[in-house]
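Hi support team,

I submitted a single chain yesterday and got back a structure, but I'm not sure I'm reading the token output correctly. Could someone confirm the output below corresponds to the sequence I sent? I've pasted both exactly as they appear in my results page.

Thanks,
R.
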Amino acid sequence: MPIAHRSLSPRKRLAAGLVLATSLALGGIVSADEHEASAAEETWLPSLITETPQEGFALAVKLSQKGVATTQPDAEVRKEQRPEYAEDPDSLIAASHVIATHFQTVAAANDYWRE
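Hi R., thanks for writing in. Yes, this is the structure output for that exact sequence:
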């Protein structure tokens, strides 16, 4: 059953939609399920330094996905829970917020890609 959500302004809906669309457009990013396979690797995050802001954003998404896989290591449970949040605007906005927070960290580590 979907969770009731408050009405969002058109501007907030647009911002959330853009973040979600950007996340989905980055098809080359490793999913949380695939992180499970690499969990045995000792160093999966050697650095926060990236060449470009786009690579930094991709890293922020990866960090968010890794956080989900670490919090809920059972891939089957994650798959079962997806329908509960996949169409809930509040859940999607919350996920976007986590990505944005990670992006802030990556951007700061890269001195905001100043030249």
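A quick pointer for reading it: The chain is about 65% helix and 0% strand. Let us know if anything else looks off.

Best,
Support desk
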